Amino acid sequence: MLPYSVSLLLDFSILISVIISLQKLRDVRKEYLPFIVSVWVNLLGCIATEIAIYFWRSNGIIANFYFIIFCLLILWQFKRWGLFSDRPAAFYVMLGVFVLVWSVDNLVIGTLYKFNPYARIINSMAIVLLSVHLLSSELVDEAKSFWKSSKQLILMTYILLFTIKMITEFFWQYGIQLGDSFMVSIFLIYQYINFTANLLYAYAMLWIPLTTRYFWP
Question: How many C-beta atoms lie closer than 10 Å to residue 27's C-beta?
Fold first, then answer.
């Protein structure tokens, strides 16, 4: 396992994105508001996790609520990007499915105080598929370089992050027989991928288009 200080540094690397977002908040386009809110929620989740572990030695309930909030913010972001423009009702259907799957997993099959894998696997798979769909359309229609397109960078980060989340949850649920060292390795990989995602969020934040401000001569 990583030293606690290193693990803390990796998790709180999201603070870079938060600082950049505060500097750009006044002029950022509203279509990116859900992404910015999700970054703030990420930081709050890190803080709440540390508090919960310090006082109660477990962050299960924090992690479960954070996951569904993060998923719904991503779904809102997809709506702002026009994913559901042709079928507006599909947004509410997906929202309902996300909440239903999470509720069944955390309130019926499991409890809020434990790490329940099924909602994480199912909702993560949905986010990956939706991200791939949006990214493929962007790569065809957008002339801007990938490394200068905040939307493409964010979508690629979602694909990376939620793919590893699916794999991690699957092994946590079904890979116990593979041994403790293997499970520790899976957890470390997730930590490094999450750190990479935080850096990509920060880089994408730099390229978020701003609203045009007009000044009278």
Answer: 12
Name the pTM for this structure: 0.92
143 in a domain, yes or no? yes
Distance, CA of 200 to CA of 189 (rounded, Å): 16
Q: pLDDT of 77-90, one tens digit each? A: 999 999 999 999 99
Residue 197 lies in a domain: yes
Domain that holds residue 73: 4-206
CB 84 within 8 A of CB 52: no
125 residue type, one letter = M
Q: Please state, in angstroms and rounded to a whole number, the distance separating the CA atoms of residues 44 and 40.
A: 6
How distant, in Å, are the alpha carbons of 21, 28, 113, 137, 148 from that of 34? 12, 12, 27, 20, 20
C-alpha span between 18 and 56 (Å, rounded): 27
Question: Could you tell me if residue 145 is inside a domain?
Answer: yes
